[in-house]
Design goal:
Three copies of one chain form a homotrimer. Helices cover 30% and strands 28% of the residues of chain A. By secondary structure, chain A is α/β, with parallel strands linked by helices. In chain A, helix 1 packs antiparallel against helix 2.
Chain lengths: 127, 127, 127
């Protein structure tokens, strides 16, 4: 149910992308109670004219290794869960790929559970 | 007003993509009261390192023909409408392209009507 | 904090894309109180089979120069601010690139401030 979009600058290896996707998913499972099999991700690469970021906003130094991660998932997670999720995503990405935590940008979009269909044209999470 | 993003594995024909876009739009018109001319879609193709899905979550068997469909549209549709929309999207996709209904993943994002501009820098749906 | 996705038909120059990104960002700063350094944008190009739009919905005449702009940012902006933002985006895009205002489609997604991490695994905007 999380639908995860990860955008990065082009030129990384398939192995690097795999590790990024793995780290983000494992963080969702560990910190935000996402089922381990509930994994749907889109990773896109963009050249320097197409992925634009500020290199110092909020005094955080960003580089071309930046990841822009947008996660759509169910509403209702408490602030403490969101904070733990952010920390775990950045932590696992750093541990597994060496990416700097400064380069991990995350945005969450929350929707009601009834807004998902996992296949078969049904709303599996609707009450 | 629906802004529809459809992501699929690379390698499909232009005709296949056209049929997919048509089916999703027709389902929105038929099941969710979207005006027939209100069509704005982005279809993106991704290789196997970039579109990642679980092949069995919720015991639904998915294949590389999976479609990840994310629809942003106006809030306020009842659960029954959402259910009818999911069923119609999967049904029309199957009927028109042969895609398995198990391979149709859908997520909805709802926003207030004032959040759209259809051109000219105006908020055409604002009260 | 705005995460901005701009989709256009393929074939434009790097300079054109830069001007588009600049115009959208400047409009956010001028009309919606976004900090000048708070800039994160993804610009994607799509061929005619992949970016689909209606050329006349609401009697607005659109061309292949259409821009589909989706902005995720903090909730709470008043309708008048949203209207001013739409007008400023279309106005600046026209002034800086010559694009027709009819070709500027915009959708907003609003989220709570705690839904962003600008790096370091922290929720910088959380209270």
């Amino acid at each position: 149910m999380p639908l995860v979009r990860i955008s990065l600058r082009a030129g990384k290896s398939a192995d690097y992308k795999r590790k990024i996707g793995d780290a983000v998913h494992h963080a969702l499972v560990e910190a935000a109670n996402v089922p381990p099999l509930d994994r749907f991700q889109i990773i896109t690469e963009h050249d320097e004219t197409a992925l634009i970021y500020d290199a110092q906003y909020l005094d955080i130094k960003r580089t071309d290794d930046i990841l822009l991660i947008q996660i759509s998932f169910n509403q209702g997670r408490a602030l403490e869960i969101k904070k733990a999720l952010f920390a775990r995503i950045a932590g696992l990405l750093h541990d597994e790929t060496g990416i700097r935590k400064e380069d991990v940008f995350i945005g969450l979009i929350e929707v009601p559970p009834e807004n998902w269909s996992f296949g078969n044209g049904e709303a599996q999470y609707a009450k």
